[in-house]
From TrEMBL:
PANTHER family: CBBY-LIKE PROTEIN, XYLULOSE-1,5-BISPHOSPHATE (XUBP) PHOSPHATASE. GO terms for molecular function: phosphatase activity. CDD domains: HAD_BPGM-like (cd07505). It comes from Oidiodendron maius (strain Zn). It comes from the Eukaryota. Pfam families: HAD_2. InterPro entries: CbbY-like, HAD-like_sf, HAD-SF_hydro_IA, HAD_2, HAD_sf, PGP-like_dom2. This is Uncharacterized protein. Signal peptide: none annotated.
Amino acid sequence: MSTIQTILFDCDNTLVLSEELAFEACADLANEILAAHDVPDKYTGPQLMSEFVGQNFRGMMVSLKAKYKYEMSDPDLERYVSLEEDRVIAKLKQSLKPCVGVDEELEKLAKSNKYQLTVVSSSALRRVKASLEKVGQDKYFNPDHIFSAATSLPKPTSKPDPAIYLHAMKVLGKTADQCVAVEDSKSGATAAYRAHIPTIGYTGSYEPQKQEKMKKVLQDAGCAIIMNDWSEFEGALEKIEKGEV
């Protein structure tokens, strides 16, 4: 029976319903970039989301560059990354909502005082903090325990690279068996699995018809247990603690 001390939450579509809003802003900018490189293809937010969910904008730009075989200088990439951050944050500040039922669970966890609560995201730190503040979840997390693969590492990366999880555990002074991660995407679950952290997969932010498919995707990516609703979190955590999964 392991002693879980720390819970590492993904942010986008795990704590807050941000992916759809963010990908709308991303698609607009991605289309501008493609047009500037004489690529006639255009993306909608949902198309971009289905192809690149779980990746940050930097990772997405690298993938698009490889797909359409055009060049982009490092200064241009940095400029676009910064521009995307501004546009996404503006959209999130306007319309962001928490995932259904998560606030009640965060409140219970905070009251129990049993676990260290942290956020481990692929998104830029400024965006993660703006998201948590907008929905009032920032009160549950120490600002020094919010980690971003895009911002917190010496070399920016994105999940499924486990680097951000390994960095978070090092900063927190925890081993993988003292942690549980909560992830909603294949890339996020893969990153946690590669860092050897037991992971709860969350499918509640997907459309009902996609939830069954995502359950299998998350299981295949290494999640120990899947929850469809935040009301199942306590039971899922207990099963991991008791070594039942």
